[in-house]
Write a structure and sequence with these properties.
binds magnesium ion; binds adenosine-5'-diphosphate; 711 residues; Creatine Kinase, Chain A, domain 2; 23 helices; 6-stranded mixed β-sheet; Four Helix Bundle (Hemerythrin (Met), subunit A); Ubiquitin-like (UB roll)
Length: 711
């Protein structure tokens, strides 16, 4: 029998019902101020000019802004919006919004709705508490938000009203980027310029812009909210700090791609309808490997819009869960011993006419271009492997990367057999002149037919070529995809320019494109092929081999984050005007501090829970055994309790501020990693043993076997 959403939701009969007033085929984009909507509402000339500036990626003429603001306001009011917000992405990793009412009093006791071009274009949130890594500290605390017309405004609905959200960039008054969006936009511009320059050399005279694309696959856990609220660790840290392994883990693999439980499916359908209204093109859903773990993935979009949509997706996933009496956990490792969650960041480059530059084609020319761009990516990833690793660093990630479930902390590239063999052939070179129309003298007209989608998909590679895109699989499930894509775009731009410069020189010297390209690819491949690895990334042999190859193995966050400020990082980011040294330093500082603060919260929560929840339960259990006179169990339990007390004391001591090294934040981060995490682990080890012997009615925490298996 069907259970209704209202029955699932302990707290509301009306909330748990999806809005079914529109059929599926009519809801897509209804809450988005789409170009179609703009065309209808804006004067023709204004609309045309707006589209033109957007297509060219130029700055917007401020005289257009009033017109656009008026149309946007009318559209939003018709949809019940009472407020608008500049929606932005500060370095906290989540989104921020400050709501302003449309309505202004007019002096006679009434109010009218008002929204000017100025209010659309620029905002000044009182946002002085966002982390800035010192950028604003010495100046005034002011930060500005600036409208990003390339990401459409949208409406967030609430049962009691609606909010117009305007995607914006967030900067300091000195023009420094305080967010994730500005560097992403700058990097997209840098990559576009570099790719267009290269395309000219490769014989493409048409393309004027190249867009990077992103399709992020998001993993998450869903648990019943009663367990969430009963666990202080989940509530304050997003993960369980205690919990013994259940008798049934995911050994049975009966959950993966299994049929989706009914309540969960109802939730997913609701999420997807909400996202459809917001113009987020969700494509797939399925169960993931761990019990209670699921995945959602969209069709790819340009990196800026795709990254905004990813933030919206995380928000809708979390909000909607509450309607169904569920909580959505985005943490990278909510449950020890159970697979964690990541985000596969599918990345490619496409031209303004829709050609995917990482798609092997069926003409020799197309394939020359494909090989050129693919080689650039390999070169970039090898050269900046440490930086790429740094973009996915974070406290949750330290449980995942390198454990036997997620990509290892060593960055490497999987190419697949076909493509790898093409590179081997290029490296060996083939004697004699290349035949006209042949591919780099390989004696074939085109690449061997490349069904690169299929076959040996390597699940353990952090950076895999999957047919027509690269899949960066090391991103964490809580993380914004913006920074990883910013880095990918920037380092790819550098490599593209480097290869193009060599290619251009050879062509100037009189070589044909094919003659010129082969040595360029050969040289780059020889220098960077060490990053290519098609084997098992989880194996110990790979760790040894990677070390021999000179690849970095940055195991923890404090190992990885310094790559944000290494010389070669600063060089490439300044050269392409994506982030200045100061902006890079601010990110390094903010991320380091976030790591430390989050770990500190975990450690204090762990200590408090141990002393005030778990120890009392163990002591009561011991008393019970004593009064029942079960001598054998008394001594066993006594020993455990004594050990538990000692470990709790040790954790409490190491948590004391006066015992910690906290200047600079990097030293604090390392102290937490090396001293506090081990102390937490020691306490947990005993706690998890106690969980298995203390009377069930005395144990104060919900157990994994309940949390993970009640759907
Ligand atoms: P799978 O990886 O499971 O085989 P697909 O190849 O269809 O599935 O793609 C998975 C993800 O890759 C989807 O989120 C999709 O949007 C994204 N994707 C596909 N093509 C591109 C592209 N050119 N650029 C960026 N992402 C892409
Ligand atoms: Mg995938």
């Amino acid at each position: 029998e069907n259970v209704t959403a209202a029955q699932w939701s302990p707290n509301g009969a009306t909330l748990g019902t999806p809005d079914l007033t529109l059929p599926d085929n009519q809801i897509f984009g209804t809450n988005v101020f789409t170009p179609a909507e703009q065309r209808q509402r804006l004067p023709k000339a204004v609309y045309k000019q707006l589209q033109l500036t957007l297509e060219r990626g130029e700055a917007l003429d401020s005289s257009l802004a009033d017109s656009v603001a008026l149309a946007m306001k009318e559209w939003a009011l018709e949809r019940g919006a009472t407020h608008y917000a500049h929606w932005f992405q500060p370095l906290t990793g989540s989104t921020a919004e400050k709501h302003d009412s449309f309505y202004n009093p007019v002096g006679d006791g009434t109010a009218i709705a008002d929204f000017s071009g100025k209010e659309l274009i620029q905002g000044e949130p009182d946002a002085s508490s966002f982390p800035t890594g010192g950028i604003r500290a010495t100046f005034e605390a002011r930060g500005y938000t600036a409208w990003d017309p390339t990401s459409p405004a949208f409406i967030l609905e609430n049962p009691n009203g609606a909010l117009l959200c305007i995607p914006t960039a967030f900067t300091s008054w000195t023009g420094e980027a305080l967010d994730y969006k500005i560097p992403l936009l700058r990097s997209m511009g840098a990559l576009s310029d570099a790719a267009v320059r290269a395309l000219r050399l490769l014989g493409d005279e048409q393309t004027e812009r190249v867009f990077t694309t992103v399709g992020p696959e998001q993993e998450y856990f869903l648990i019943d909210e009663q367990y969430y609220f009963a666990r202080p660790d989940l509530l304050t840290t997003g993960r369980t700090l205690y919990g013994a392994q259940p008798p049934k883990g995911h050994e049975l693999d009966d959950h993966y791609f299994g049929s989706i439980p009914e309540r969960v499916l109802a939730y997913m359908l609701d999420v997807e309808r909400e996202l459809a209204k917001l113009g987020v093109p969700i494509k797939t859903r399925h169960n993931e490997v761990a019990p209670a773990q699921y995945e959602i993935a969209p069709m790819f979009e340009n990196s800026n819009v795709g990254s905004d949509h990813q933030q919206i997706t995380m928000q809708v996933l979390q909000n909607t869960a509450r309607k169904y009496g569920l909580v959505c956990l985005l943490h990278e490792k909510p449950f020890a011993g159970v697979n964690g969650s990541g985000k596969h960041n599918n990345w490619s480059m496409g031209t303004d006419s829709g050609d995917n530059l990482l798609e092997p084609g069926d003409t020799p020319n197309h394939n020359l271009s494909f090989l050129f761009f693919c080689t650039a990516v390999i070169q970039a990833v090898d050269k900046h492997q440490g930086l790429l690793r740094a973009t996915v660093a974070g406290p949750g990630q330290d449980h995942r990367l390198g454990a036997n479930e997620a990509p290892p902390a060593i960055i490497s590239i999987f190419l697949g057999e076909e493509l790898a063999s093409v590179y081997e052939a290029i490296e060996k070179g083939v004697a004699g002149e290349p035949k006209p129309g042949s591919l780099l003298g390989l004696g074939t007209d085109v690449l061997p037919p490349l069904p690169l989608h299929g076959g040996d998909r390597n699940r353990t590679s952090p950076f895999a070529f999957t047919g027509n895109k690269f899949e960066f699989r090391a991103v964490g499930s809580t993380q914004s995809v913006a920074i990883a894509n910013t880095v990918l775009n920037t380092i790819a731009a550098e490599a593209i320019d480097d290869l193009a410069a060599k290619l251009g020189k050879a062509i100037e010297g009189g070589a044909t494109l094919e003659e010129a390209l082969r040595p360029v690819l050969q040289e780059s491949w020889s220098a960077h092929k060490r990053i290519v690895f098609d084997g098992d990334g989880y194996s110990d042999e790979w760790h040894d081999e990677a070390e021999q190859r000179g690849l970095l193995n940055l195991r923890t966050t404090p190992d990885a984050l310094p790559y944000f400020v290494k010389e070669e990082t600063v060089k490439v980011f300044e050269a392409y005007n994506v982030l200045s040294e100061r902006e890079l330093e601010s990110r390094y500082e903010v991320f380091t501090e976030q790591y430390a603060v989050k770990l500190n919260i975990e450690a204090e929560t762990a200590a408090t829970m141990a002393r005030t929840l778990l120890l009392p339960a163990a002591v009561r259990h011991l008393a019970l055994l004593r009064s029942a006179g079960v001598a054998e169990l008394v001594s066993e339990t006594e020993a455990l309790v004594d050990e538990f007390v000692a470990k709790i004391k040790a954790l409490e001591a190491v948590n004391l501020k006066e015992n910690q090294e906290d200047e600079p934040p990097a030293a604090w981060a390392i102290f937490l990693r090396d001293r506090v995490i081990p102390a937490m682990n020691d306490v947990r080890e005993i706690a998890d043993k106690l969980e298995k012997i203390v009377a069930d009615d005395l144990w104060p925490l919900a157990k994994y076997s309940e949390i993970l298996f009640i759907k």
